[in-house]
Design brief:
mainly alpha, single chain, two-stranded antiparallel ribbon
């Protein structure tokens, strides 16, 4: 069963709570500063570093040519962040909606909808109403709560936030099957399909361009709409 546009996931009863204690969580590399949920991306590895640079380029203003993502972030993050904290989900997961549906709207050809791109049945599995003239997938607060429930279950399986993010996109069976002795549960060294293999890179790149817009060609991103509260307080 499909959960997201490009991901294979499973119904609620398929995500098991068994933790894979043998998985190795990545340690932050403070000198590099690139990480997802405080799990570092090993950019010193040539292949990983190259893929990350490509992802950053694809999210730069020269490629995107729009500040839509920054506008969307300014509206959504104040709603999403408190919910993530309430469920114990790292703040970096707030970038998933920007990657999943940042420049898209409506229902995908495969039936996924909303910021978190839930498929109808999986949305129902996590407490959302879909049908009868109501679609909670389009409700920011309700869909974020459902996503948090799902993310917590995935973390219970993988004991790694990076693998949790990858499984959110590709489905937990695919991630479990990709783990072997050689990669030791390190996402960046796994053999995955193209979409899932680039997913965490996209999240970290999105994090970079939203937090440091000028570094990636986004100038005056707040000029066309109201400034965030923290900036207003300075003026």
């Amino acid at each position: 069963m499909k959960l997201f546009v490009c991901s294979t996931t499973e119904s609620k009863n398929v995500v098991k709570s068994t933790r894979f204690a043998g998985y190795i969580a990545l340690r932050p590399e403070e000198s590099e500063g690139y990480n997802f949920a405080h799990e570092a991306i090993p950019v010193t590895n040539k292949k990983v570093g190259r893929k990350f640079k490509v992802s950053l380029w694809r999210h730069s203003y020269n490629t995107v040519g729009s500040v839509v993502l920054h506008k969307k972030a300014s509206k959504l993050f104040p709603i999403i962040e408190p919910i993530l904290r309430a469920y114990g989900i790292p703040e970096d997961f707030k970038y998933i909606p920007l990657v999943e549906s940042g420049l898209k709207s409506g229902v995908s050809p495969k039936g996924a909808a909303g910021l978190w791109q839930f498929m109808p049945q999986t949305a129902r599995d996590y407490g959302l109403r879909v049908g009868g003239g109501q679609d909670d997938r389009l409700n920011v607060r309700k869909s974020t709560i459902a996503a948090c429930k799902y993310l917590r279950e995935l973390y219970g399986v993988f004991n790694s936030w990076t693998l949790t993010a990858a499984a959110y996109n590709g489905g937990s069976p695919r991630i479990r099957h990709a783990i072997n002795h050689k990669n030791q549960g390190n996402y960046y060294y796994m053999s995955l399909n193209r979409e899932t293999a680039s997913y965490v890179y996209k999240l970290i790149a999105m994090k970079e361009v939203i937090k440091k817009p000028k570094d990636y060609g986004y100038h005056n991103v707040y000029a066309s709409y109201l400034q965030p509260a923290e900036l207003l307080a300075v003026n």
